[in-house]
Specification:
Chemotaxis protein chec; globular
Length: 159
Amino acid sequence: MLTGKYYVKVDSNGRVTIPARLREHLGERFVLAMGLDGCLWAYSKEQWEREILRPLQGISPFDRDQARVFRAISAWSQEVEMDKQARVVLPEPLREQAKIGEEVVFVGVLTRVEIWARENWEREEVFLQSEETRTLVRQTLERFRRLPSSEAQEAGGEG
């Protein structure tokens, strides 16, 4: 399970050092993808397969909207590899899309890592500390408690 937040500098070559607590889960080679809310998602190859690729197997190449979803996911994702110093280059197109500058925040989100530009994370964190978010968390937890365990797992994704 991935949790916590870690502040890391980005070097002049666009490299970041992967925090030690996240390395084992991600593995030496992992997938970076454009996430939601302006952050990057980092998945181990196995988790990427389970959470992203398998659900997409049913997409029809003949359905324009479905094909665009698949195309967007494919275009905005890339497999990367850590070097001997546990650094990885954040690909320039992904850095630009996520507005990543000199510092990032790695956030463990249970089955994936989110990589945020520090400024964007600070804005997101204000929202996460709001009463609106506390209400949303409470409602979501109550909903999942009422579901039989198999339905809760299906509604929340495999874990």
